[in-house]
Amino acid sequence: MARPRPDTGAAPLFATRREWSLESGGTAEWESRAARKRGLLRVRAAPRGPAADRYAAAPVLGRLRLLNRIVSATFTVGSALFVAGAALAELTAVGVVRCALVYLAGGLLFTVGAYAEFLQCVNAPGRGGRDDGLVAGEWRWWSYEPMRVDWLSALLLLGGTGVFGVNLLDSLLRGLSAQQIDRLVWTPDMIGCTLFLISGQLAVHEVCHGRVVVRVRDLGWWIVVVNQLGAVLFMVSALADYTQPATDSLVNVSLANWATLGGALLFCAGGVLQAYERPTP
């Protein structure tokens, strides 16, 4: 018989931090990102005493490490391919199709990484049988938990990579009119960038617990902020990539390429930082 799913803090709406009293007299503090990424729970033996890190069981931590490696590697390499594609487009004359193929390879890696990120949310350890520890239920490939901010963020990120896939595939088509380019290539690009921006803002909400704060000692804060800045540059690139029907020319080709390159570098940095946000018991 499958175990019931642990409590991942889904209530109240968009809960990102919860605290409860322990039978031993102390308190436990759960943060959604720390639990999901590191399998970590903070426990205090007394209400105002020092906090001690307590981790989920070894098999759960092994699962978290594997997913974290996949997320880090795919976003790092995928972003590097976007950097290469933008550099080729701006600095060389290799051709539109070859640049599009480089982008497509990077986009495929982005999709794999986004799904691995989603699996982290779906299988995040939560409060289980013991009041002072984290447990994980049976492995799942999908879930429906719209009350969780991390789940929504990961789902929108996955949706954004899927829409980008449509954009990248359509960019291989030749002989399109300006209206067809805007409909088949530019519109999916804008939708994907918008989903990335909303996903990134939800991730910032999770780390900052719904407030506007700077947490320079928090690795998770740096990761979501760097990625959100990358999403902003991707949006700038999409806006500059609009084909004007009157002239059949882009708004600003160089701005589109350089903004893509800058955004990809930021996502690459976020992927590298992700490698260090792992369970360290």
In words, what does this structure look like?
This protein is α+β, with helices and mostly antiparallel strands and 281 residues long. The chain has one domain (17-274). The chain is built from 7 helices and 8 strands, in the order ββαββααββαααββα. The protein has helices at residues 32-38, 58-91, 96-122, 149-170, 178-208, 219-240, 253-274; strands at residues 17-21, 27-31, 40-44, 51-55, 126-127, 134-135, 243-244, 249-250. It has a 4-stranded antiparallel β-sheet with strand order 1-2-3-4. Strand 1 (17-21) and strand 2 form a beta hairpin. Helix 4 runs antiparallel to helix 5 and helix 5 runs antiparallel to helix 6 (219-240). The model has no long low-confidence stretch (mean pLDDT 89).
Could you list some keywords that capture this structure?
single chain; 281 residues; alpha+beta; elongated
Classify the helix fraction into a percent range. 55-70%
How does the helix and strand content classify structurally? alpha+beta
Largest sheet: spatial strand order: 1-2-3-4
Mean pLDDT: 89
What overall form do the CA principal axes indicate?
elongated
Number of structural domains: 1
What portion of the residues fall into strands of 2 or more residues?
5-15%
Span from first to last CA?
30 Å
Gyration radius over CA: 21 Å
Low-confidence residue ranges: none
Number of strands: 8
Return the string of H and E elements. EEHEEHHEEHHHEEH
Please outline what is shown here.
The chain is an alpha+beta fold and 281 residues long. The chain contains 7 helices and 8 strands; from the N terminus they run E-E-H-E-E-H-H-E-E-H-H-H-E-E-H.
